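Exam prep: given the inputs below (a chain plus pyridoxal-5'-phosphate), describe the expected output before reading on.
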Amino acid sequence: MNKFTNRKRGVRTTAIHAGEAIDPVSRASSPNLVMSSTFAPTEVAGFSARNRQGYEGFVYARLSSPTVKQLEDKLAALEEAQSCQCYASGMAASSALMLGRLSQGEHLVISDTNYVGTAELVRDTLPRFGIEVTPVDMSDLDMVEGAIRPQTRMLWVETPANPIMRLADIEALSLLARAKKVRDVVVDSTFASPIATRPLALGADFVVHSLTKYIGGHGDAMGGAVLGRKSELDQLNLEATVHYGGVLSPFNAWLIMRGAATLPIRMKAHEETAIEVAKFLEAHRRVRRILYPGLASDSPGRRRPGAGQAHGRETGGRPLCRLARPSPQPDLLDTDRRPYALDLPA
Ligand SMILES: Cc1ncc(COP(=O)(O)O)c(C=O)c1O
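Solution:
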């Protein structure tokens, strides 16, 4: 090992190189776009996930495919996850994880503020399958503890929560879930991206991303991802990917991989620009309140995710995300009346 390879890769190097390898046939150094839906396996392998019998090569693109696999490996490196499974959209990833892990009679506790598609999925769809759902302010640990039942199998935490940017303390929620024997802590980390927060390092079991947002970054490809432990992701692949079928197109994977290479420098630019916009609006006489965790005037205890994560690392992994007081939250699962940031009471 030379001096360079001996050192741990920085996040910018990881974003560019992780997951990508020189093609052994063409020696291409950039990722190949492999659109093939079928492959010629070197062993007898079936189309069912159950009869792959440990064969790791490619068979059929709904099970796994080379370009998507490169993106999955890059995302796993960025999140420091054992494994990643990509989907056709963020919602395909979320629904695969919920339906792949929860069964009739089980209970989900979820943020009362979520991306609207997630809010509608848990309000309208999960109850049809006998899965009970309790929405709760995830920034209030006492409320979360009160919502947990013996049947609770999953805590679903969206932080920062779309659209009000409310933060939740991932580490404290993970500890609470362990103590209460809740099996899965899931963090929808779309708005933070792996540059600002790495939920698995804070104790979460799964991370969900809409790759359509910052990770893809160019507004031209839908995608989603679930990250976590390999054994659980393999199990999810068996059911939620192979049977529900919401797989990511290789072309979208190729576009998203190209976008992900510049994620660290884009996130820096986003933060620098967002704080300028927030400060400008804060000083504007026609604007009543700004919800942006980077501003000192935002509710006490709210912190910008980047700052929270950096502080968490410096202080032994504790993020600065616990809110001093719960923010006022009407029933945000009622998406017909769902308030957006500017409608919230002061
Ligand atoms: C936080 C969050 N999670 C999930 C989604 C769903 O992602 P997609 O639009 O890729 O299905 C979105 C979309 O806006 C989102 O903002």
